Amino acid sequence: MAEQQNVRNFSIIAHIDHGKSTLADRILEKTKALTEREMKEQFLDAMDLERERGITIKLNAVQLKYEANDGEDYLFHLIDTPGHVDFTYEVSRSLAACEGALLVVDAAQGIEAQTLANVYLALDNDLEIIPVINKIDLPSADVDRVKQEIEDVIGIDADDAILASAKDGVGIDEILERIVTDIPAPTGDPKEPTKALIFDSLYDPYRGVIAYICVKEGSIKVGDEIKMMQTGKTFEVSELGVFTPKPISKDELRVGDVGFLTASIKNVGDSRVGDTITLANNPADEPLPGYKRLNPMVYCGLFPVDADNYNDLREALERLELNDSSLQYEPETSQALGFGFRCGFLGLLHMEIIQERIEREFNIDLITTAPSVIYEVELTDGETINIENPSLMPESKNIKEVREPFVKATVMVPNDFVGPVMEICQKKRGQYIDMQYLDENRVNIVYEIPLSEIVYDFFDQLKSQTKGYASFDYELSGYKPSNLVKMDILLNGETVDALSFIVHRDFAYHRGKHIAEKLKKIIPRQQFEVPVQAAIGNKVVARTTIKAMRKNVLSKCYGGDISRKRKLLEKQKEGKKRMKMVGKVEIPQEAFMSVLEMDEDS
Amino acid sequence: MDRSVYIHIPFCHEICHYCDFAKIYYNRELADAYLENLRKEMGLYIGNQTISPRTVYLGGGTPTSLNENQLEFLLKTINEFINVEQVEEFTIEANPGEFEEGHVKIMKDFGINRVSLGVQVLDDEFLKLLNRNHTVGDVQKTVEMLQHYDLNNISMDFIYALPDQSIDHFKKTLDMALAFDLPHYSAYALQIEPRTVFHMRHQQGKLNKPPEEDEAEMLLMLMEMMEGAGKRHYEISNYAVKGFESQHNLTYWNNEEYYAFGAGAHGYLNQERYVNLRPVNHYNEALEKDQKPILHRDVITLKEKLEEEMFLGLRRASGVTDHEFIHKYGVSLFQLYEKEIQDLQHKGWLEREDDRVYLTKNGLMFGNDVFASFLLDEDTYKKSLNN
């Protein structure tokens, strides 16, 4: 095994599409971690969803062997990081296990807003950063401009940035050498009491929790009795190992090693990501600094379409929570949708990914309510409460003030789109903060915008108005009072709690009208006329009517094709089953998200 | 009495914009080969004997797209396997204006006694819009010609709720149709089916279908005008002078078995519903290898039979009687569907009279909802079997 001074732990920071996965593959190839035969494209993105979307969601840690030009053997640990802003938490976890990072920037597109956020995170963690300008083979590559940008925007020296084309295998050797020369070996004393950071975990039905760990001090052997410093629980280590990327068992993990551990840990809560593992018979005094636990910014209700799947949904959430501690959930009961969960997410992408994983990996059909942010409500009696479910907003007579979360939104965009971007920001109740020219073509625009507007349709509008050229990032900047009201939707005279939402008073009338019209289109005609109303308190601000169904009979003669008639009837019956009966009205799934969608003209 | 016979002639001179039946542009050689294969197919089922069904129905496509020689060949084939003298009702579907006296004589000679005319609408502009290749004048001429040859058992098919059609427009068509004072009429609301020109236009938002309110009004008006003219509403989309109800179509609603020959035809034999291969070349290929040209078959389970007895039977004005139900399946429909029937009666969609249930006028408007409620849940079905 390599000595501690020959170990290098690093990760790769890159914007989506800037070639991180390809670069990781090339590194794996060069270090012969994978044979040709095993070499699948983009090995690290293992989840189907990750491959399909071309994004990394979960981290991965791989051990690689490298013989450097100085003739010595080195042991690399490549810890993959997600690129999207919603997964900042996971990035901070993987960065905590590293001493350095490769910053990959697209030679044609330059730095993007999301990359910036992760680089700052790396700098905060005192990581050594090696800039890599990738895709230099592109005809539109402009290396000098990108170098300048790295120096101006990030403030690190880009003179010796590595020029690479992961696709063509250019620059890979230099990257490997520079990892050896530039990134420091892990500090930490093998003789000190053991401290190992859990930076991720997953659940295996046979082996229990598999914890991904980085040993910061001391060492761990198979058979050792370990102690979780947060919970105080002890376990006997049954398996240790590293990923090469195939899992390889080891007898011992020492300072600087990054690998996995199992110890028949059956209870998910006993192995928390961010906790420090030490040895029971020689415990460390202080745990490693944990991570800043990120709080969810966006909430929505998840309900099983079939009420019988409630327990399955709970199990699915428990499983997902295990290696995604940023996911929060608690049981929720809706008059309209029955039993489900109110779930908190770091952002919209995070929400979408979780929903998709539940539907795909656990095979549960979901009804999702429109996402909402957390509002701070100061009541007239002086108490302040947090509202994450719009239907629970107190009556206005009991409210002194409602505060909503604002974010500092950074939009990077080519010059030509400054106008449209500012217009969107203004329309979304944004406050101008700053604008900087990055070079003669690109501008960084900073606004303070209510998070609820971002949740609504900000990103879609930004994409369409800038032809997809804008990159966007945001961070929470705090709570401010706003003139907000709760809008209820009544179907057939009854409030449907799952459709309530909170809206700025100035937009209330317009949005209420729009949603009433939208619901009229989505909800099929019933046997009776169904009035659709949008109301603030007792005041109806918009009203429309879903007309009663007048005729539903198949007169067509199918020349004796009875099977076809049967199929049509079965489909009708099945369709009814998939609708939610709310009061006397049957509502299709998509109605509950309609609160969120605006048409082009709005 | 043997099972009824349906024969499909998939050829057309013009393809209508709404049609999704098995059909293909007429071509003489192709039609010749097809008729040979049709003969072969009938032989595979019937063998050397002859059968004596109560009804025979020649549908399409358009049977009258065939030329005189071909029509004669077809009818000779039918006479070879079927004892046509014994057949009560022998129908041919015909397009107005598409055939002359020669065709009519052949029809008469080989036992055809009922003609169903595809009229669809009585307005030349609208006919063009549907891509029909006849005019209102053709309809007049064809009816006169048939009646001249004493083929008086004529039916007309109509489609309503056509793109841009008003209630008033449909009324004019109905007025003109009833002026012929024929013994039988059928009328279907336009259904937009996949793989049709109308479907494509609909997708593009270029098809202006009348609103559901108008469609409902048209159906109500249709029922009223037909009844007023003495044509009884004996099945959801069929109206007839007493004694002229289509016996062939009733075999479907009576849930009886029937033969089906020809490309894309649907049959029901020995507890199996089957559908033949389509298009014509696939059908031909199978028969050239002396194989039955079946694309797909489904064994109909007892549960499905019970359901079909209800959702087909309730299409008839006469509804479903319990003694017949018990006779066929050994169980009372009032026991099997106790809850459903109560619920439907409560909604005013179903009426019960002695041991008979039938759709009310309102129930007819929501026929699909009524029919769908007679599909049994697995659990309910199992429970009722155990009782």
Automatic annotation (TrEMBL), chain A:
Q: Spell out the PROSITE patterns in the cross-references.
A: G_TR_1, G_TR_2
Residues involved in GTP binding: D17, H18, G19, K20, S21, T22, N134, K135, I136, D137
Q: What sequence ranges are listed for the domain Tr-type G?
A: 5-187
Q: Which Enzyme Commission number(s) are on file for it?
A: 3.6.5.n1
GO CC annotation: plasma membrane
Mind listing the UniProt keywords for this protein, alphabetically?
Cell membrane, GTP-binding, Hydrolase, Membrane, Nucleotide-binding, Protein biosynthesis
Gene3D superfamilies per the UniProt record, alphabetical: 3.30.70.240, Elongation factor 4, C-terminal domain, Elongation Factor G (Translational Gtpase), domain 3, P-loop containing nucleotide triphosphate hydrolases, Translation factors
Which CDD domains does the record associate with it?
EF4_II, EF4_III, LepA, lepA_C
Q: How does it sit in the membrane?
A: Peripheral membrane protein
- Where does the UniProt annotation locate this protein? Cell membrane
The UniProt GO MF terms for this protein read:
GTP binding; GTPase activity; ribosome binding; translation elongation factor activity
The protein's annotated catalytic reaction(s) are: GTP + H2O = GDP + phosphate + H(+)
Query: Where is this chain primarily localised?
Result: membrane
Q: Where is the signal peptide?
A: none
Q: What class of enzyme is it?
A: hydrolase
- Output the GO biological process annotations, alphabetical, semicolon-separated: positive regulation of translation
- Please give the function described in this protein's UniProt entry: Required for accurate and efficient protein synthesis under certain stress conditions. May act as a fidelity factor of the translation reaction, by catalyzing a one-codon backward translocation of tRNAs on improperly translocated ribosomes. Back-translocation proceeds from a post-translocation (POST) complex to a pre-translocation (PRE) complex, thus giving elongation factor G a second chance to translocate the tRNAs correctly. Binds to ribosomes in a GTP-dependent manner.
Matching NCBIfam families, A to Z?
Answer: lepA, small_GTP
* Family designation: Belongs to the GTP-binding elongation factor family. LepA subfamily. Belongs to the TRAFAC class translation factor GTPase superfamily. Classic translation factor GTPase family. LepA subfamily.
Q: State the protein's name.
A: Elongation factor 4
Q: Which organism is it from?
A: Piscibacillus halophilus
Automatic annotation (TrEMBL), chain B:
One Pfam family here? Radical_SAM
Keywords on record: 4Fe-4S, Chaperone, Cytoplasm, Heme, Iron, Iron-sulfur, Metal-binding, S-adenosyl-L-methionine
Key word Iron present: yes
Q: SMART domains given for it?
A: Elp3
Give compartment(s): Cytoplasm
Say where the protein is mainly found: cytoplasm
What Gene Ontology terms describe what this protein does at the molecular function level? 4 iron, 4 sulfur cluster binding; coproporphyrinogen oxidase activity; metal ion binding
Could you confirm whether the keyword Signal appears in this record?
no
| Gene3D superfamilies cross-referenced by the UniProt entry | tm_1862 like domain
Family affiliation = Belongs to the anaerobic coproporphyrinogen-III oxidase family. HemW subfamily.
Query: What biological function has been recorded for the protein in this entry?
Result: Probably acts as a heme chaperone, transferring heme to an unknown acceptor. Binds one molecule of heme per monomer, possibly covalently. Binds 1 [4Fe-4S] cluster. The cluster is coordinated with 3 cysteines and an exchangeable S-adenosyl-L-methionine.
Query: What is this protein identified as?
Result: Heme chaperone HemW
The scientific name of the source species is: Piscibacillus halophilus
